[in-house]
Design goal:
Largest sheet of chain B: 7 strands, mixed
Order of helices and strands of chain A: HHEEEHHHH
CATH class of chain A: Alpha Beta
Number of domains of chain B: 2
Strand order of the largest sheet of chain A: 1-2-3
Strand content of chain B: 15-25%
Number of domains of chain A: 1
Number of helices of chain B: 13
Number of helices of chain A: 6
Oligomer: heterodimer
Radius of gyration of chain B: 22 Å
CATH architecture of chain A: Alpha-Beta Complex
Distance between the termini of chain A: 16 Å
Distance between the termini of chain B: 30 Å
Number of strands of chain B: 17
């Protein structure tokens, strides 16, 4: 693992200038979670439009570069997509979005916190329960 | 190697097998000693010796192995108690400081704390000296209040004295902050709290490993510390309390070893401290902790403290030269243990720790089990470098170089 590889321009840019950072005045989904190991926090709000699409999405949070950049990039990806798309997102998609940095096991949780929050919120809205089965809670 | 010239650092380092390994191809620079320390060969040997030569249960059987095990276990109790100026009968072996505070919560708190009582802790405590009192307050309908801090990271004694006027039942305070390194004036705190009628508990987890401690000099009702932070094994620690206080208290856990006689409708308790050591005790690790105490005593705790003060002094000066470095905690070295908590520009501590790890440097990053203190500092986390006997100025220089490298990657 090389830290110059992990903290490439892309991640630092999103950490220092997060896109979609803030809160929505009107929203239908509001989910928040923390990573107890690092104390990372991410809250995502979504306004749902016609056709069950993500009309607008914003996030707020505090934490390491990986957790905050990952959450920000994910909101960009999600905007305009159907809610069902969220169900299809996998941790591999997140790693690819981040440019496949070689994260050690303890930092994977940081990268996947945004996805966990997004899925928790959307599953809840759709009347389902997100089980965190695709590994965002696993450290190995 | 640059030395503090207080300890023979090459000789000390040779006593710690783990220091010969590499991390990512680099020399291990271990600066996470407030979290846990490494173990000298003498401690590892004591564990191996017990298991390979006289493994058996204590206080029961009458054969030679059991006598040897009992003598070693009780010998460790005498050594560990003596190390902090206490008598063997005043020491209860526990898993660590957390189990000690929880023991007090149940064995003392259940009978002594009533509805409407006040419990006092401070803003600089580790969670293990906050959460048990929250649980106790909740179950009893008592109130928990906190002594505030001054801007330099020392306790606000005015806030403490005004809380004493409310006649607290318990004052639970740390001897030394695991984040700020602040060494509290526990003699003054215990004297004033006792005069106000409070029972006192001092968390010594960050003090006993780093400086001479004589609890006779400040007479807390309870004093607790952990073995693994003082070169001993994990899973063993000590709770010290006056013998009469231990005798008054109810048991913590019920079971074997802690009883005198058991009938179907009631039981009577073993003498202290055995009354609080239910079940088969952690024999090997207690013996290992005794070996750690012997090792520290052979170095002299006065020298250990002086060594760490010099490292701290050197580190505060060296690291302040790095752009973006911001440290927390009192600058008066007499009031501070060898702990440097800091932030580095806008780089999150976990990101910094990842970069440093690549250089073989181990620091702690996070909230250090002190979230109320993090909120007081208005940060989500800090990085923390903390020293022990095997650290040298070279380790500080390595940290400084690591910070500069991180500064390059993060364009600080």
């Amino acid at each position: 693992m090389s830290s110059a590889d992990i903290y490439r321009e892309l991640i630092l840019d999103y950490y220092r200038n997060p896109r979609n950072f803030g809160k929505l005045e009107k929203f239908d989904i509001d989910a928040r979670d923390t990573n107890p190991l690092c104390g990372d926090e991410v809250e995502i709000q979504i306004r749902v439009g016609g056709g069950q699409r993500i009309e607008d999405i914003k996030f707020v949070g505090k934490g390491c570069a990986i957790s905050q950049a990952s959450a920000s990039m994910l909101t960009e990806l999600a905007k305009g997509k159907k809610l069902d798309w969220v169900k299809e997102v996998t941790k591999e998609d997140i790693f690819k979005m981040l440019g496949n940095p070689d994260l050690g096991p303890s930092r994977v949780k940081c990268a996947l916190l945004g996805m966990k929050v997004l899925k928790t919120g959307v599953y809840g809205y759709l009347g389902a329960h997100y089980e965190d089965s695709d590994g965002s809670g696993d450290t190995v | 190697m640059l030395k503090t010239e207080v300890l023979d650092i090459e000789k000390v380092r040779a006593d710690f097998p783990i220091l010969s390994r590499t991390v990512h191809g680099k020399r291990l620079v271990y600066l996470d000693n407030s979290n846990t320390t490494h173990k000298p060969r003498a401690v590892i040997d004591a564990l191996v010796d017990y298991y390979s030569r006289y493994n058996s249960n204590v206080h029961r059987a009458v054969y030679l192995l059991a006598e040897e095990a009992t003598e070693s276990y009780e010998g460790a109790r005498r050594k560990v108690a003596g190390f902090v100026g206490a008598a063997a009968k005043e020491l209860v072996f526990v898993r660590g400081t957390t189990e000690a505070t929880n023991l007090v919560r149940f064995a003392w708190g259940e009978t002594n704390v009533k509805k409407g009582d006040l419990l006092v802790s401070t803003l600089m405590e580790h969670h293990s000296n906050i959460v048990p009192w929250q649980l106790l307050a909740k179950s009893k309908g008592a109130t928990l209040k906190f002594v505030g801090l001054r801007p330099d990271g020392t306790l606000d004694m005015e806030s403490f004295e005004s809380l004493l006027k409310e006649s607290p039942k318990l004052v639970a305070v740390t001897h030394c902050s695991n984040v700020l390194g602040t060494i509290n004036d526990v003699a003054k705190i215990c004297a004033k709290a006792s005069a106000a009628g409070a029972t006192t508990l001092v968390d010594g987890a960050q003090a006993v490993p780093h400086m001479p401690v004589d609890i006779k000099s400040f007479r807390p009702d309870f004093y607790a510390f952990s073995g693994h932070k003082m070169l001993g094994p994990t899973g063993i620690g000590a709770l010290l309390a006056r013998k009469e206080l231990l005798e008054e208290m109810e048991p913590f856990q019920g079971g074997g070893e802690m009883i005198r006689e058991v009938f179907l409708d009631h039981s009577t308790w073993n003498d202290v401290p055995y009354k609080f050591e239910a079940g088969t005790v952690n024999i090997a690790d207690a013996i290992g902790l005794g070996a750690a105490v012997d090792y520290l005593t052979s170095l002299s705790m006065d020298k250990v403290r002086e060594h760490e003060v010099r490292l701290l002094d050197y580190a505060l000066q060296a690291l302040a030269e790095v752009k973006g470095f911001h440290q927390y905690g009192p600058l008066d070295l007499k009031k501070r243990a060898g702990v440097v908590s800091f932030n580095f520009a806008d780089v999150h501590p976990h990101d910094l720790a990842t970069v440093l790890d690549e250089e073989g440097i181990a620091i702690r990053s996070g909230h250090h089990c002190a979230q109320p203190l993090m909120r007081w500092l208005d940060v989500t986390a800090t990085s923390r470098a903390s020293f022990h006997v095997y650290n040298s100025y070279d380790d500080v220089d390595a940290l400084k170089a690591g910070l500069k490298k991180a500064g390059g990657i993060f364009k600080v």
